[in-house]
């Protein structure tokens, strides 16, 4: 990763034209000049963000994983002075690719806690059944007590 080229926002901001269009997404610099005419959302969106930090704009659209995967095709280096995401993700050129890892980690953590979860379930069931038995017994007791009177 040390071989990655480093750019500043000042440098990126010079590439703000339709025929020379860079943008920064999650501290990574993308040269999307060749993509302007192919962007499924329309070239205007890219032009509006030319030479800029466009992480929020990219995320706000809710781009698909396919779109996220496409970023690596346009990656040219890292931006040294743009803000990182609040929740920093992987350090590879693909910036917002946590979808599957996040799902995987929840799956594996739920697997790890499987026995614990089962124990919790049993405890809850016992507590519930116990509660019902006590409630029914008290109702029966008071009903009988009333009848006796
Ligand atoms: C620079 C890297 C970008 C790539 C590789 C990219 C790629 C894509 C792709 C593949 C789609 C089709 C829908 C999908 O698969 O999500 C799309 C749609 C779209 N993109 Fe981008 N995009 C980029 C940047 C941006 C930026 C900076 C904006 C700014 C707002 C933007 C706005 C949109 C919009 C509005 C759509 C249409 C969404 C829809 O139809 O629901 N894109 N983009």
TrEMBL record:
Pfam families: Cyt-b5 (PF00173). It is found in: Endoplasmic reticulum membrane; Microsome membrane. Residues 87-100 have a biased composition (Polar residues). InterPro entries: Cyt_B5-like_heme/steroid-bd (IPR001199), Cyt_B5-like_heme/steroid_sf (IPR036400), Cyt_B5_heme-BS (IPR018506), Cytochrome_b5 (IPR050668). Residues 87-119 are annotated as: Disordered. The lineage of its organism: Eukaryota, Amoebozoa, Evosea, Eumycetozoa, Dictyostelia. Residues 105-114 have a biased composition (Low complexity). PANTHER family: CYTOCHROME B5 (PTHR19359:SF150). Its main location: endoplasmic reticulum. The chain crosses the membrane at residues 126-145. GO terms for molecular function: electron transfer activity; heme binding; metal ion binding. GO terms for biological process: electron transport chain. Keywords: Electron transport, Endoplasmic reticulum, Heme, Iron, Membrane, Metal-binding, Microsome, Transmembrane, Transmembrane helix, Transport. It comes from the Eukaryota. Gene3D superfamilies: Cytochrome b5-like heme/steroid binding domain. Residues 4-80 form the Cytochrome b5 heme-binding domain. It comes from Dictyostelium discoideum. This is Cytochrome b5 B. It is a single-pass membrane protein. Belongs to the cytochrome b5 family. GO terms for cellular component: endoplasmic reticulum membrane; membrane.
């Amino acid at each position: 990763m040390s071989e990655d080229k480093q750019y500043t926002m000042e440098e990126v901001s010079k590439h703000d034209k339709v025929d020379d269009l860079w943008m920064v997404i999650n501290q990574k610099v993308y040269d999307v000049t060749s993509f302007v005419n192919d962007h499924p959302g329309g070239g205007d969106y890219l032009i509006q963000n030319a030479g800029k930090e466009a992480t929020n704009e990219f995320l706000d659209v809710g781009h698909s994983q396919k779109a996220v995967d496409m970023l690596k095709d346009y990656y040219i280096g890292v931006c040294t002075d743009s803000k990182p995401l609040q929740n920093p993700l992987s350090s590879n050129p693909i910036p917002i690719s946590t979808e599957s890892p996040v799902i995987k980690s929840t799956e594996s953590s739920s697997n790890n806690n499987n026995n614990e979860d089962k124990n919790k379930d049993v405890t809850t069931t016992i507590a519930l059944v116990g509660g019902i038995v006590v409630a029914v017994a008290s109702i029966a007791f008071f009903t009988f007590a009333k009848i006796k009177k």
